[in-house]
Amino acid sequence: MNVHPNDNTIQQYVLDNSNQGTMIGEHIQSCEQCKTKVEVYKLLIEAIHHQEVSSFDFDLRELVLSQLPQKKTFYCPENIFIYFLLSLAALLPGALFYLFRKQLTGLFEGVSAMSILLIVTTVVTIFILLAIDLLKTYQQKITRVNLT
Amino acid sequence: MINTEWDNLQDHNLVEKALKGDASAFGIIIKKTERLVSQIVFKMISDSEERKDIAQDTYLKTFKRLPEFKFQSRLSTWVARICYNTCLDYLRKKKLVIADEIIDNQQDDAAAFKFLVQDFSVNDALIGRQLASILNGEIEKLPPIFKTLITLYHKEELSYDEIVQITSLPEGTVKNYLFRARKTLKNQLLTKYKKEDL
Q1: Has residue A82 got a pLDDT over 80?
Q2: Which of A4, A22, B41, B193 is the most exposed place for a label (fewest CB within 10 A)?
Q3: Chain A partners within 8 Å of B26 (Cβ)
Q4: CB within 8 Å: B135 and A64
Q5: Is residue B181 over pLDDT 90?
C-alpha cells in the first residue's frame, strides 16, 4: 500500500489493535511518517486519560436531599387533622342519633329491625367508600404538588 | 460480568428503597452517579453557578422520574442521560453553541510530529501527565458536545452503545464527532509545537 492512510484510518488503527496484520497495519509499520502519526494519537489518548476528574466543590447529595419532599410520619400535623375529621364524622351521627332518638325511633315505627339494619349498613358502607376515595384523591394531588 | 450483575442487583435494591421513600437510598444513588454527572456538567456548561443549578436539577428530575425507570439501561447511564438533556436544554435556552463546525484544513507537519513524539513518551506516566495539562486547555476550546464525547469515551471509558444511550446521537455521529475532536486536538498540539519551535 503506497498511499498513506487518512487521519480517520490512523485513529481507527490506534483504537482497534485487531488490524495490525492488515495491509494498513503493514504500511504503518513500514512508513515512518504514519508510524509517527500513530504515536501522536497514542500520546493524545493517553493524555486525555490522565485528565483530572472534575468534581463539584459543594455537597451535592445534601443539597438535593434537603429539597426532596419529606416522608410523612404517622403523627404528622396533616394526619392528625385527618384523624380529627374522621373522629368528628364518626361521632356526629352518633351524637345526633342520641339527641333525637325519640323522634328517630318514631320515624322507624312499623319498619322491621332487619330493614333498619340493611339501610344503616348500606349508608355506612357507602360513606366509608366515599371517604376512602376522597382520601386517595387528596393524597395523589398532594404528591403531585410536592414533586412539582 | 459478575461485577456488572452485582451492580445491577445493587441498583435494583437502591431504586426499590428510594421509591418506598428511603432518602438515604436515593443519597447513595447520587453518590454512585455523581462522578459521571460532574464530568458531563463540567464539559457542557462553563458557568460555575449554572453547573450547581443544573446538577441539582438533574437529580430532582431523576427523583421525579424514578418510578418510570425500568432498567432498560444501567442506572448510571439513565441518570447521565437526564443530565446531558438538562445541559442541552440550558445551552439551547441560552442560544449557546453546542457543536459548531470545526474547520479542518491544517496540513500535517512531519517535523512537528517528530518533536512532539520525541519530547513525550507514552511509557512515561509523568510526561503523560504533563501533556495532559497542556491538552486540558486545548480540550476546553472544543465545542461542548465534542468535549463531552471525548471525556465519556477516553476518560470514563464508556462504550459507543452507552454514549448513544446518554446522548441519543446515532452511533455513526458519535464516532464521527470523536474522530473530528481527536484530529482537532492533534492539530492544536502540533500548532503549539510549531510556534514553540520558532
Answers
A1: no
A2: A22
A3: 64-65, 68
A4: no
A5: yes
Half-sphere exposure of A130 (CA within 13 A, CB side): 8
With 50 as the cut, is the pLDDT of residue B196 above it?
Answer: no
Entry pTM = 0.71
Considering only CB atoms, which chain A residues are within 8 Å of B180? none
ipTM: 0.78
The residue whose grid cell reads 476550546 is B141
Q: Terminal CA-to-CA distance of chain A, rounded, Å?
A: 63
A58, three cell numbers: 459543594
Q: Is B65 on the interface with A (CB under 8 A)?
A: no
Q: Is the dihedral of CA B129, B133, B138, B144 positive or negative?
A: positive
Mean pLDDT of A60-81: 76
In the predicted model, what is the mean pLDDT of residues B9-27?
90
- How much of chain B exceeds pLDDT 90, in percent? 55
What b/e sequence results for B44-78 when a residue is b if at least 16 CB atoms lie within 10 Å of its CB, and e otherwise?
A: bbeeeebbbebbbbbbbebbeebeebeeebbbbbb
Chain A CB contacts of B30 below 8 Å: 60-61, 64-65
Q: Do B132 and A50 touch (CB under 8 A)?
A: yes
Q: How far apart are CA B155 and CA B150, in angstroms?
A: 7
Instruction: With CB atoms and an 8 Å threshold, state whether B30 touches A33.
Output: no
Q: Give the distance from CA A87 to its chain's centroid.
A: 34
Alpha carbon distance A31, A23 (integer Å): 12
CA angle, residues A53, A58, A59, in degrees to nearest 5: 100
The mean predicted confidence, pLDDT, of chain A is 81
Does residue B134 contact residue B189 with C-beta atoms inside 8 Å? yes
DSSP state of B67: G
What whole-number distance in Å separates Cα of residue B158 and Cα of residue B125? 22
Cell of A73: 410520619
Alpha helices (runs of H) in chain A, residue ranges in sequence order: 7-15, 23-30, 32-49, 60-65, 77-99, 101-107, 113-147
Region of A59 (left: φ > 0; alpha: ψ -120 to 50; beta: rest) is beta
